[in-house]
Amino acid sequence: MTSSVRLRVAICGGGIGGLTLALALARYADLQLEIYEGATKFEEIGAGLALWGRSVQALKKLGLEPKLRRISPGSDEKSEMRLRKANVPSGGEVIGKMTLSTMIGFHRAQFIALLVDLLAETGRATTHFGKRCVSFVQKDEDKGDGMVTAHFKDGSSVTCDVLIGCDGIKSAVREELMREHTGHQNKYEIPNNSPGRTFAGTQFSGTVAYRALIMPTDLKKFDENHSALTMRTTYTGKDRHIVTYPVAGGRFINFVGYCSNPERQEEWASGPWVVDVDQNELLAQYDTFEPEVQMMLQCISKSSRWAMYEVEPLPFWSKGRVTILGDAAHAMPPFIGAGGGQGIEDVYVLARLLGDPSATRESLPSVLRAYEEIRRPRAIKTLLCTRNARRAMEYQEEYEDAEASTIETALAAATHWLWEENGDIDDDVGEALRIVHELESDAKKK
Questions:
Q1: Residue 331 contacts by C-beta under 8 Å, 6 or more apart in sequence?
Q2: Per residue in 317-334, pLDDT tens?
Q3: What's the DSSP call for residue 224?
């Protein structure tokens, strides 16, 4: 390592989290950035993505928000979500409206393409494709000369000062962290490679999601004034609900139909995570829903069914000079559109900490611990609110016979704190830097 390089940073995973992190770190000239991506090119599966509140605030501070709005010209500073009780074949009813702020909606592939272009312009990061991390080894993790060696599926390895797992819900970096932590070894036992296998710390949420993009021109053939053309709408019903909103400046309508059918839980949990399905399955799942929903279903000839897994609250995210972020740390179902935003918040806080001159090879364990102490509680709260929102939207458990006002109140409680600005994210950075200073001061006293 030359004297001009303060830290060698290895980012495992080239999805939205990994690329955004690399772009955020590219502002610091004394960081050496390497991205290791398991695929042969950058790509993103999934469809629409919505960001709110503090995640948009973080993008603004990173200088990305104006660029994102160019690929999502229909996004507004203020937006409204309409709630409908939809499992009424003769016609649903509006049961509430919620005003949302600072929302940006776009297709995931567009975001990836933008990040790749912007990162290439910086010339600051080197990307290695076909490098899927399978394990790592730390040397003297609590000492100043400690290093991390990441091992890849192709048999190669690399040494770095800090390893950041941005490798998604099936994170190998998280598996290794949990495996190293003997106190939780049994709880996070690594299962076999069956099609429905879970990964360290993951569990089936009990819900599947039917994902599709609807062409507005197709929907207009049924109703030129259909609300899904212009408004974010949640259609609620027993054990299932649907969320729709325009993306890519109104060029598409993102459709996500959730189903928590108790009769199919075992089938969904044991099968593949993602399968293609035809229109007949969609029609059968929502056959009791109102005409407004039936019109959209007629516009979807094919869709994919995703088993919604989540990462249960982990006892820690970091150990020594290794940490995780985004879905690797806190994957959650998108019932309130919060998972992607939490990943962006992770990126901002971690990038600011690593970019600060106080982040050295010697202080890295304290830096990563501070990042975890700030971000982990908020991510856990978001997951718990996500679960509560699903129960409300699907009239489950305590909401089974709830009135419309109760459902609206429950959703407001689960989401307003998250969707609004909710304080300056730089305050989190300031608190994290204070924790780093405190930890380092305590270490010097020993």
A1: 168, 169, 202, 309, 310, 311, 339
A2: 999 999 999 999 999 998
A3: T
